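Worked example

This section walks through a single chain of length 158. The input is the sequence exactly as stored; nothing has been trimmed or padded.
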Amino acid sequence: MHICFSDDLKEWSDDQSLLDATEGWQQKVGGSSPPVKTEKGWLTLYHGVEFPNTENPDNQEWVGMGEYFSPCQFRYCAGVMLLDLEDPTRIIARSPYPILEPEESYELWGSVNNVVFPCGSVLLGDEIFVYYGAADTVCGVATAKFDDLLEYVLQFAK
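Given that input, the structure is written out below as tokens.
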């Protein structure tokens, strides 16, 4: 995942790597909704992708609903990190665990199975509303107390 900067939202420069893929549910990472400015830093959501066990294809997790079963080809989840206010290229904290993952039937089954993909967020009062695509078929919204989410990610500060 990269970050770059603009003074006018037309010309962009200083493209640099911000977040590297790791393992588990973050084998591939990418941007999500716009960051939210807090006193502690920029609270930023992102998506991560987990790929199946490619070393042993016979040992795949199979998911099913009713009579339809298929191997999980991948799983999209949402993560959270906190970026420095003055230098947003510096990650202050990043959760090693997803804050949102496919669990409901409409997230597990659709045009593309096993997907929650956050696209926008709104801070209303003390709650954050995270709008996300589910299985590339429907839109969902998840809510959390904003201070709880901030406190959660800060426990993973570097």
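What to look for: The chain has one domain: 24-154.
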